[in-house]
Amino acid sequence: MTALFADVPGQGRAVAALTAAARRPVHAYLLTGPAGTGKAAAARSFAAMLLCPDGGDGTCDTCRRVLGGGHPDVVTVEREGAFITVEAAREVSRLAARSPVEGNRKVLVLQDFHLVREAGPALLKTIEEPPASTVFVVLAEHVPPELNTIASRCVRVDFAPLAPSTVIEALVADGATPALAVELAAAAGGRLDRARMLAADPEFELRRQAWLSVPSRLDGRGHAAATLADELIGLLDRSVAPLRARQDQEMAQLAARNARALEVNGKVGRGARGGLKAGVREMEDRHKREMRRQRTDELRTGLAILAGVYRDTLGAATSPAAQRASVDSVRLITDLGAALASNPGELLAVQALMARLGRRSVTG
Ligand SMILES: [Zn+2]
What we know:
Elements: H1 12-23, E1 28-32, H2 39-51, H3 61-67, E2 74-77, H4 86-97, E3 106-110, H5 120-128, E4 134-140, H6 148-152, E5 155-158, H7 164-174, H8 178-188, H9 192-199, H10 204-212, H11 214-217, H12 222-238, H13 241-264, H14 270-316, H15 320-339, H16 346-363
Parallel strand pairs: 1-4, 1-5, 2-3, 3-4
Helix pairs in contact: 1-2, 2-3, 4-5, 7-8, 8-9, 10-12, 10-14, 12-16, 13-14, 14-15, 15-16
The structure holds zinc ion.
């Protein structure tokens, strides 16, 4: 295996499609798949293949500069606020019209284009009829209706959710112990980016131990159940700290960019000012959604660990009553896991679960 696509584990089919495409490229590709499946890394390797004078061996100067993000003919367009603005779409058109700096080809990587919204039409013509030297690589987590027309002009390459074994291998390669890698992969639900975030989260193991300890600490009394619920929700509250730090940083960067924009164009019109404000609001909304998702992911992870403990007790149960109690407990936990998406009352739900599990621990 060459250095190219080495950081795109578990996507053999997509990598094969891109490798074949690089030999005779068309003008636009759409890479779709969930977050954390390696689309951006694959786009870098694909760009290297397109520009490499040696047919994409991954080791020449050109390849290394593309992979390192320092080649002038590979331009990545990232969104500034929560969605792709019309202004960003116009910038893409301007970039596409420019001649390559070094060779005879240029690659434009457009990130997060499931968030293209009303900027779609502004881009369509450019993507339909780009200069012969330009290749577009559009990345999107899914294809919303606004992206349909653009998608129909691109060759589509799908990125599948990662298999647990792929995530485990990648984490071990990062330096995690195999045992921890198994826990992290299970907790991250197929997302390598989330698994890596958890690997860097000092409290992940603490949370895991807390959920593992639940059955042994329930004694059938309401007080123990309530204490446990409080403790678990407290850990859940703290689990958002790494995400919050990242969001604060994003918001500070946006504020700095907006301040610069106002400074540069001393007399920014009311419309542009409104646009900047709308960008901030969009980011706040997205941050709230991310936070909500993080808590739900985290609670689901905890419930999955807890269900695992009761499944183990089922295997060890000697009486039918004890077996029934284990089965009931697993069902209660999985029911709550399934209801989470529609149930915003985390604390109440976990309190109720602990109380019910506690009663079963006595009758079992
Ligand atoms: Zn090369």
